[in-house]
User: Which sequence fits this backbone?
């Protein structure tokens, strides 16, 4: 283990059902905690991991990014193979590689895409229950599409953030938002340079209210301007949300 210090980047996929989110905390097991524990065992040195996206409890990811420093001599590209032998089945490292020593995730301008999936049918689909939100109310996808367009661009998304979130600014930029129907599923895809706490889930809950006919599409513009969380829709359940793309 007496090698030079190296910085390693991991691309991580996980089913978030059993975890209290990405970031380590007191009240339950997290993805970061499991990765650090298994990396420490594998490399025989204390490992601390930093993630690019702090997904919430129950949220899934196909491509979260994490970095850590190590002295072990194992080639960085081999870590994914060795680590996956130790990880539980609901977490997988899909790539590992060495990056420059001064690489800093906090200074990267990450661009993220989340998908929120909704089963809109007469009855729930048991096979999809862990990865979608179910609703039997008829949803007008065209109205949801109209409403979504008001969210594109740079806005103060305070009304779409859980009250009490500790952030310096609630201004964010949504670069694209799409609402499509795929059979019995409605898929909401949201891309941007960063997201507030529960922001995509509140957007999903609000667009569903529009789809149900309880809100007009134009209401979304008014909600944004109000900067008042009480005016937006409910926070949709975590299980429907997945981080599907992260570019750094």
Assistant:
């Amino acid at each position: 283990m007496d090698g030079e210090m190296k910085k390693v980047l991991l691309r991580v996929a996980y089913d978030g059902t059993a975890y209290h989110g990405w970031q380590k905390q007191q009240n339950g097991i997290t993805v970061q905690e499991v990765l650090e524990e298994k990396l420490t065992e594998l490399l025989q040195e204390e490992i601390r991991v930093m993630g690019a996206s702090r997904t919430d409890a129950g949220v899934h990811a196909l491509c979260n990014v994490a970095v850590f420093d190590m002295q072990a001599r194992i080639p960085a590209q081999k870590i994914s193979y060795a680590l996956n032998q130790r990880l539980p089945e609901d977490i997988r490292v899909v790539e590992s590689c060495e990056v420059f020593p001064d690489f800093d995730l906090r200074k990267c301008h990450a661009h993220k895409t989340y998908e929120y999936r909704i089963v809109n049918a007469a009855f729930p689909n048991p096979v999809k229950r862990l990865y979608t939100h179910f609703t039997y109310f008829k949803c007008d996808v065209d109205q949801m599409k109209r409403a979504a367009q008001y969210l594109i661009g740079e806005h103060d998304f305070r009304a779409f953030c859980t009250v009490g979130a500790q952030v310096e600014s609630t201004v964010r930029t949504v670069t694209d938002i799409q609402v499509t129907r795929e059979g019995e599923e409605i898929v909401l895809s949201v891309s941007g340079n960063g997201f507030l706490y529960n922001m995509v889930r509140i957007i999903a809950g609000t667009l569903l209210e529009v789809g149900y006919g309880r809100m007009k599409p134009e209401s979304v513009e008014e909600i944004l301007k109000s900067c008042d969380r009480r005016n937006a829709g409910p926070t949709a359940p975590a299980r429907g949300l997945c981080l599907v793309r992260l570019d750094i």
